[in-house]
Design goal:
GO molecular function: methyltransferase activity
Helix content: 25-40%
Structural class: alpha/beta
Family: Belongs to the N(4)/N(6)-methyltransferase family.
InterPro entries: DNA_methylase_N4/N6, DNA_methylase_N6_adenine_CS, RM_Methyltransferase, SAM-dependent_MTases_sf
Strand order of the largest sheet: 1-11-10-2-6-8-7-9
Mean pLDDT: 86
Order of helices and strands: EHEEHEEHEHEEEHEHEH
CATH topology: Rossmann fold
Bound molecules: S-adenosylmethionine
Number of helices: 7
Keywords: Methyltransferase, Transferase
Organism: Paludisphaera mucosa
Length: 254
């Protein structure tokens, strides 16, 4: 975490909603946040997916190795990492908060058990319908899962979000990140799981579109990414935003 990282005191009056963009490893960042006072209404994130092709390519030699982002990882390593992530997420969320994770089938297979072992319950698996097929053969993928984990009875802040959310992919010419999620899709998820002036965390932020969606909706955002180029691009975009004054201070401190 950068030396200039300061999580604002949640009871102080701000001129603008918080929009933290940090260059960090997700688990380091979450560990440091866990010593602070803010509890999040929602953790909405999109971790790197295990690469099934890399997994098949290593069959026979290193059968249980997966490729996650740029890192090769054993299934045991991934299981351990997911448990660590789950424990930190459980400490950072309000008891009535929501953990929402984008996942494909492979990531869902490896994440659900370890995360549920840390006190979460998988409540729903919603679907992002991208409106058109991806590349490949047979069942060409047109969807991703949005996996909803809760610690107890979650609070919802909107009643018009279906389990299938239809939003076209971000057009390549308008993309800031190769795995960028559409802001309008993220706004539906944030509006469902956090109140006005609430707090949202994304520790695998990529384009930081979760933060830009929070800005549009009047939520506080804290996020990080390991990749400096993504962080710098997001900071440049954030510098171009107009301030939206907040009416009330966040009531999410514990
Ligand atoms: C699937 S992308 C997220 C895309 C994002 N949802 C968006 O809309 O742009 C995953 C991101 O996680 C980042 N990442 C990978 N390993 C990480 C780690 N250990 N800590 C933090 N970020 C990491 C990658 O740099 C990548 O930008």
């Amino acid at each position: 975490m950068g030396a200039h990282f300061i999580l604002p005191h949640p009871t102080r009056k701000h001129q603008m909603h918080t929009f933290v963009i940090d260059e960090s490893d997700a688990l380091d960042f979450m560990s440091k946040l866990a010593t602070g006072r803010v509890r999040f209404d929602a953790i909405l994130t999109d971790p790197p997916f295990p690469n099934a092709r890399a997994s098949r390519a290593t069959k026979g030699t290193r059968k249980h190795e997966l490729k996650v982002g740029n890192a090769a990882m054993s299934e045991r390593g991934l299981d351990y990492t997911a448990r660590w992530f789950g424990r930190l997420a459980a400490r950072l969320l309000r008891p009535t908060g929501s953990l929402l994770m984008f996942a494909d089938k492979d990531l869902l297979d490896v994440l659900r058990g370890p995360i549920e072992s840390t006190g979460f319950r998988n409540r729903t698996i919603a679907v992002w319908d991208k409106g058109s097929m991806g590349t490949g053969t047979s069942f060409r993928l047109q969807h991703e899962f949005i996996v909803h984990f809760v610690l107890s009875s979650p609070e919802f802040h909107s009643n018009d979000v279906p389990s299938v959310l239809r939003h076209p992919r971000v057009a390549p010419s308008r993309r800031h990140h190769e795995n960028e999620k559409p802001v309008e899709l993220l706004k539906q998820l944030i509006g469902l799981t956090s109140p006005p002036d609430g707090w949202v965390l994304d520790p695998f932020a990529g384009s930081f579109n979760v933060g830009f969606a929070c800005h549009d909706l009047g939520r506080n955002f804290v996020g990080c990414d390991l990749n400096l180029a993504h962080v710098e691009a997001a900071r440049a975009r954030r510098d171009g935003l107009k301030a939206i004054p907040i009416a009330a201070t966040a009531a999410t401190a514990v």
